[in-house]
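Entry type: protein chain
Record version: 2
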Amino acid sequence: METVRAQHIDTPQGRSLWREMLEACPGLRGVLDYVVRKQATPNITRLHWFQQELFERWFFRIPCPSVGRMIHSGDAWLGECGETIFRFPDAQNLLLVSAGRSNGYPISAVLLVTERMCLSFGARDTTLTAERTEHILSSLLDRPPAAPPTSIAAVIDEIDSIDLTSRILRMISEQRELRGPVSLWLPPSTFSAVEQTAPMSLHARMNRGTPSSERTFSGTVTFRVALPSCRSE
């Protein structure tokens, strides 16, 4: 098995790795350009574009790296270091990773599974190391193939912040009507206080802590949400 290679794009090693990734998958440039452009666009909901689409549709869209048409995200799960890993039923060699609580968990890394290559392009403190990338790839071994979403679980990660957690819940309640089984997971330390001010429409969806591992099977979209610190005022 090839050694995992992981770099940040803002380094000579990262730019070299990026060229190799493009040789393996030329359409990856369109994926990265799309994600970077979407994340640079101001969003009046103050959620990242893909988070808003997840609440509205249970999936978000990106260009397919092989055929150019738009494809939907599938299931997602939480990594060991606070990241979220997204798979795509129509592009099963591709993973996107969101990370960085202070920035609201934007998408910040792209992985090619077969080539065992990972390129981070977000804040430097969210760079995926080779070790963390290996853990992500290893977690695929026990999973069925990527599948369309069947339920979503949003982990609201504003630890010990009653105000920010309440604001996120208000944003979620303002989205289009939430579909089917949508669960919201809140920090236990602030759950009781936040529950008193949360929109009544969300009370039945609110839970303490984080989902158990049994809830992250294929088809379940589990992802983290936080307010970017630069937009928290």
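Comment: The helical segments are 12-24, 28-40, 49-57, 130-139, 162-173, 191-197.
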